[in-house]
Design brief:
The protein has 405 residues and is of the alpha+beta class. It has 2 domains: 102-302 and 386-403, Creatinase/methionine aminopeptidase superfamily (Creatine Amidinohydrolase), CATH 3.90.230; 308-380, Arc Repressor Mutant, subunit A (Orthogonal Bundle), CATH 1.10.10. Helix content is 43%, strand content 21%. The chain has 8 helices and 13 strands. The strands form 3 sheets. Strands 5, 6, 7, 8, 12 and 13 form a 6-stranded antiparallel β-sheet that branches. It has a 4-stranded antiparallel β-sheet with strand order 2-11-9-10. It has a 3-stranded antiparallel β-sheet with strand order 1-3-4, covered by helices on one side.
Length: 405
């Protein structure tokens, strides 16, 4: 009986061992699951760790792009209504004054530019016409050629081209069909006026075909006088001081200045302005001011220096000081319209008018008789005497002059 008890115990032991092994297996499996879970957690942690620098780098870049307050660019945002400066409402008088000042500034610029352009055109016309002033040349051809050239260059006729010979000092321009020609022994003066926007450049030169010793230096006399006079001009100088100086030079050459003619200021649409530069010494005179535009012209004569008015006239100018006059003639009314539109108060020649109106001479007679036209008669010294002329246009500057011609 003792042997049977031992077998049961052994069997019980086996059963216990089997249970223990099974339990151990389960524990091992559980441990494996735990290990696998731990591996997953580790992998996830690694991924998180890997993402962290990228995210940090993005954050860093974001911080770089973000400007500090001191580095921010100034905004162009409009101020709030409370911060806006209220506009000052100008009165009608103030607006009118402001507009007037703006117009004056524009006109000042236009004036200077126009005088300069007119001066440049004048220089080119003189260079072009001088070779054509020769013995045998018609006065009419010289007048026509000079005026056609200045128009071609962009100017307008500021004063009809003068061709004044020998004792004739001023204001002779060829009438239509003029057959006069330059002769050997003549002293010829050519005076040309160019207008640009109503602003004028006026200048003259003399060519002598005379070999008489008495007239040898007459051209040099007027050129020297004008250049000397111009060199003296600046703001504050008196015009009579220039006259005194030019007279001395002309007399020094053995000639007489023509006392009845003078240099003159140039205004818009007006060749002969309100100020004069005498050819001789005078007790008083106008004062040169900055911005003044003048034509200084000197005349030297072998005679007494006195001129008279010839009966014939080929240059006219509209007279703005007369009252309104009704005209019956249709052509006369058309002529008045042409003058007002194209010439205003600039002088014009019979020759120029007849090109526009074939019967213009009759209109001139009616307009002259009514006082609507001013006549520029031919001016001359004593028959047999000789006159020379020289002229330049300039503007008075702060410390001297700017010469245009």
């Amino acid at each position: 009986m003792a042997k049977k008890t031992t077998a049961k115990k052994t069997t019980a032991k086996k059963t216990t061992a089997k249970k223990t092994t099974t339990k151990a297996k389960k524990t091992t499996a559980k441990a494996k699951k735990t290990t696998a879970k731990a591996k997953k957690t580790t992998t996830k942690a690694k991924k998180t760790t890997a993402k962290a620098p990228v995210k940090a780098e993005k954050e860093e870049k974001k911080e770089v792009k973000t400007e500090s307050p001191s580095e921010k660019k100034p905004t162009t945002e409009k101020p709030s209504k409370e911060e806006e400066t209220p506009e000052v409402e100008l009165s009608k008088e103030e607006k009118a004054k402001l507009e007037e000042e703006e117009e004056k500034a524009k006109e000042k610029v236009l004036r200077l530019e126009s005088h300069r352009k007119a001066g440049e055109i004048h220089k080119q016309v003189v260079e072009f016409i001088k070779p054509q002033v020769k013995v045998g040349a018609k006065y009419l051809d010289i007048c026509e050629a000079a005026e056609a050239k200045l128009i071609e260059l962009g100017g307008e006729i500021g004063f009809p081209t003068n061709v004044c010979v020998n004792e004739v000092a001023a204001h002779y321009t060829s009438p239509p069909n003029d057959e006069s020609v330059i002769m050997d022994g003549d002293i010829v003066k050519v005076d040309i006026g160019v207008s640009v926007e109503g602003y004028i450049a006026d200048g003259a030169f003399t060519i002598s075909f005379n070999n008489d010793p008495e007239t040898e230096n007459i051209v040099l006399a007027v050129e020297t006088a004008v250049l000397k006079g111009i060199s003296m001009i600046k703001p504050g100088v008196k015009a009579n001081e220039i006259g005194k100086a030019t007279q001395k030079i002309i007399e020094g050459f053995g000639f007489n200045p023509i006392k009845d003619l003078s240099g003159h200021s140039l205004e818009k649409w007006q060749v002969h302005g309100y100020k004069e530069i005498p050819n001789v010494a005078a007790p008083s005179g106008a004062t040169f001011e900055e911005g003044d535009v003048f034509a200084l012209e000197c005349f030297a004569s072998t005679g007494t220096g006195t001129i008279t008015r010839a009966p014939h006239c080929h240059i006219y100018e509209y007279n703005i000081s007369t009252d309104r006059v009704p005209f019956r003639g249709k052509v006369t009314r058309k002529v008045m319209g042409w003058i007002g539109k194209t010439k205003k108060t600039l002088p014009f020649s019979t020759r120029e008018l007849v090109k526009e109106f074939k019967t213009g001479k009759f209109a001139i007679r009616e307009l002259t008789n009514s006082g609507k036209l001013v006549q520029h008669h031919v001016l001359r010294e004593t028959k047999g005497e000789y006159v020379a002329q020289f002229e330049h246009t300039f503007i008075v500057t702060e410390d001297g002059i700017e010469q245009f011609t």
